[in-house]
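Submission sheet (multi-component)
Chains listed below:
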Amino acid sequence: MTRKDIHNSDVPELCRACEARHRGVCGALSADELLELSRHTKRVEVAAGTVVISEEEPIESYANVLSGVIKLSKVMEDGRQQIVGLKFAPDLLGRPFREVSGVTAEAATSSKLCMFSKAALERSVKNSHDMTNQLHQQALRELDDAREWMLTLGRKTAYEKVASFLRLIAVASDPEREDGHNEATFQLPLTRSEMADFLGLTIETVSRQMTALRKSGVIEMETTQTVRVPDLARLHLASGF
Amino acid sequence: MTRKDIHNSDVPELCRACEARHRGVCGALSADELLELSRHTKRVEVAAGTVVISEEEPIESYANVLSGVIKLSKVMEDGRQQIVGLKFAPDLLGRPFREVSGVTAEAATSSKLCMFSKAALERSVKNSHDMTNQLHQQALRELDDAREWMLTLGRKTAYEKVASFLRLIAVASDPEREDGHNEATFQLPLTRSEMADFLGLTIETVSRQMTALRKSGVIEMETTQTVRVPDLARLHLASGF
DNA sequence: CGACCGTTTGACGCAACTCAACTTCGGTGG
DNA sequence: CCACCGAAGTTGAGTTGCGTCAAACGGTCG
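Outcome: structure written.
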């Protein structure tokens, strides 16, 4: 028993400081299982613009997002594009139980990933009921997000859409915000063009709404990518509530 | 062993003709488990317009859709509404692992449901790894659908949106269509107003695009709810491909 | 410095919305 | 049976929010 305890505390070097072990899917694994998975693991750093998974190609690996932002998108044959999700640490990339993911995953900012083979993850799933559960939970969270965004895409004005996006980023960039703290500053992980693809708008309209939000005092901008929100409640209102 | 075999073939009366046992979540259960679940089960028939689950109220039960169409929707405070999903037999209604569903489920047509308590389902999940898996699979399918629809909402024209909707219904109304069979006739489960809420449009625009599709020969209409598609490939094209 | 890329701003056009009239249909009661 | 009603759908005329096209404005890099 003592030996087992020691063994259990022997978390793989690679995983020791990893956020995915606390808030992500790897939290479901015991030290032994973690060790096994980590043997098939490769840490990579990708530059903005790198395609991690492409829409119609077979998936051969999964990846945990360790830092940065990954955008999931779909394109039509004529080039029209829609971003259908954003992944932050410690989300998992990949579509379980399917050969093709149906979406393209591309780094929006430079990002760190922890990649492992499809087979390795599937082995973990088989051995750990908790792991299965974690994956299920993540799928449900993504579904909630997708539906929330459908409301935004279908029914909100351009102004509300941009405000909704800023709110999304404000929340994601500081998940542990205390409630009283009513202010936020952050870097936008997306260009205007990517924001447009997320919101179902054009670059120009996004830009105009950003100016409108600035002029009405809801946001302040240092550079084109740095946003300060002096009053999150006002932003909330601007986003349609 | 023989006794067990006999026992296993003893599928509860209620479940015998149920589609959910073949293509739905109940397929994951053994006869014993099915029997246990069926003890906490209530078959109900609801009229069009009945609210099955409401957005911000605690969930106390789940339900399998046996027939009919259930719409899932979200509303904004000012009344703007977006349908975020449609459920057909043998889908499962309910959001596992959460107190509130976040969406309202309402019968679009008169529907038959097989309802069971949250507790009963959760017991099944605990006992059956397959059941967990089924739920996970359904969540992933719903996620794929939601993302497909985000592309429609964000990037397609009104004409393409309506065509996409008709295609969705055509496929759902006859899941076992053979490939060569290039024609379809079906009843629309939604009113124009509901279609508008699904597509992020107004009633008038939906109506105009329906006439446009009719005039261009992509569809024919017997009544306002009966649609015939003489050539599914043309409808496919009209929906943006 | 000049070339380039991402962004902003302006002028204009059009797809979808709004408002309103009319038609169709199913139901209800005289 | 028909007259009447309300709800759902269609159609038209006018408006507008967002898209398109075009020009100008920074940053960054060779």
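Remark: The radius of gyration of chain A is 20 Å.
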